[in-house]
Amino acid sequence: MTITKSYLNKVMHERKSVRKYEENYKIPQAELEELLVEATTAPSSSNLQPWRFLVIQDEAVKKELRSIANNQEQVETASAIIAVLGDTAMYKNVEEVYTKNFELGYMDEATKNMMIENSLKLYSNLPKEILKNIATFDAGLISMQIMLLAKDMGYDTVTMGGFNKEAFAQRFELTDNLVPIVLIAIGKAATPAHGSSRLALNDIAKFI
């Protein structure tokens, strides 16, 4: 059996990192909201969903952010910047998460209570660095979904990890539990994106 060239496959191959955007194009906020809601179908550790978002649309704020993000042009010219943050206190939402799962019929009450107890016991005792690693990994999962969904909606994106995270946290007054992870520029491409090569499978995978 071979992989069917599905619509998802098409979107995956058409999605490219875009750094030149139509400066005057504005994505309606309702569409950005819809995009983020759909993206939250991404998996996460113990379903704790540690992602948080700061969506920056204001022109003056984007201009200010550009200096924090190594003067990358797309920060200012894209329609919006989605800052993906990781919440290292995600375990504090465990009761809300599993109670909702129970109410929706996804698990019985005994399983709900066990998951709440076990998750609180585990995550509340983890060092902050490990919690940060978990949140970073989960943020990567949802970031990819954001970019694929954006392409499906007719928009282009690029992720940026190269920015001053300390300055970002200070400028936007992030609480200690919120960690800046990536910035995603989203908008309409002004010029076609460049293609890019990939390493051969033999160089990156071993089947045993």
Automatic annotation (TrEMBL):
Keywords: Oxidoreductase. InterPro entries: Nitroreductase, Nitroreductase-like. Its EC number is 1.7.1.-. Belongs to the nitroreductase family. This is Nitroreductase family protein. SUPFAM superfamilies: FMN-dependent nitroreductase-like. The keyword Oxidoreductase applies. Residues 14-188 form the Nitroreductase domain. PANTHER family: NAD(P)H NITROREDUCTASE YDGI-RELATED (PTHR43673), NAD(P)H NITROREDUCTASE YODC-RELATED (PTHR43673:SF3). One of its GO terms (molecular function) is oxidoreductase activity. It is an enzyme of class 1 (oxidoreductase). CDD domains: MhqN-like. The keyword Cell cycle does not apply.
